[in-house]
Write a structure and sequence with these properties.
The chain is α+β, with helices and mostly antiparallel strands. The chain has three domains: 93 residues, Rossmann fold (3-Layer(aba) Sandwich), CATH 3.40.50.20; 145 residues, D-amino Acid Aminotransferase, Chain A, domain 1, CATH 3.30.470.20; 68 residues, Dna Ligase, domain 1 (2-Layer Sandwich). It contains eleven helices and 14 strands. The strands form three sheets. Strands 9, 10, 11, 12, 13 and 14 form a six-stranded antiparallel sheet that branches. Strands 3-2-1-4 form a four-stranded mixed sheet, with helices on both faces. Cell wall formation. It catalyses: 2 D-alanine + ATP = D-alanyl-D-alanine + ADP + phosphate + H(+).
Length: 334
Amino acid sequence: MSKVAVLGGGRSSEHEVSLRSAASVADGLRSAGHEVVPVHLTREGAWTTDDGRTVTLTPGAGLLDCDVAFPVLHGPFGEDGAVQGLLELLDVPYVGAPVLGSAVCMDKLISKDLMAAAGIPQVDYEAVQAADWDADRDAVLERVAGLGLPVWVKPSRLGSSVGIAPAHTADEVAPAIEGALRHDARVIVEAAATGIEAETAVLGSGAAPEVSEVGQIVLTSDDPDAWYDYEAKYTPGGMELRVPAPISDTAKATLREIAARAFTLSCVEGLARVDFFVDGETVLLNELNTLPGFTETSVYGKLWEASGVAYPDLVSRLVELAAERFARERAHAF
């Protein structure tokens, strides 16, 4: 069994969610027989141990004498490639996507452009750059109007629905863009999609990913305008995951095939939750999340549980995959 540094917290708005996910991962690893070393990343960016000591980070010297690092960090500075690059410099194996895959999937516009180039079906979208908005917002609005209504306006590089706003009327589009630009200089505006929201979980290497059963996201709110926002995701009882999703075998096969292909195209390793819209036989990719919520009741873990993989076995397998990838990559000549 391995000695695993579990990283939780971080600088993003998802700090508290990360701490809960990290605690669940640590419990799962202990149940599987691993030794766990918790590492807390403060909101200011400091790394500390359980007893409050500052962690000294020295390039090439590993991390606290651990065999593997398990970053359970959501949002900027956690799943965008920044921490992954630091772990590369420390020369320690780590769970999850490498620097490139993390950065690609964190940036919705880059990810959408990559999937479009590969011919993967997804909702229509437009990019809004802060410089273009400041120079000629009327031209931007005219371009965005081609998507129809309603639209969804999102910061390109945030997670967990932070900064996202729906615009149901033309008058709501500009304020939604302004709101998203407060979070990011790059904004994506997406056309609405019909059908149900479905998700699957991917596990493995980019060369041979395994795909879980498919689940449907069902909101429990009685509000007809409710959507899968931060509160719905992280408030107990805010959503229900129905597994298997009520879709046809053909749609399920298509969805799972797209999930595996998108995982590989995005240079992701280890894990990802892949989100879709499904309407009859039409399957549209929404996005990949390389470090999804990771409590035992989060969607990623529940999908694998429904597929026959218990939570301790899941987190243990991710540690094994990290060590395998490290050995494979360090065998290359640099």
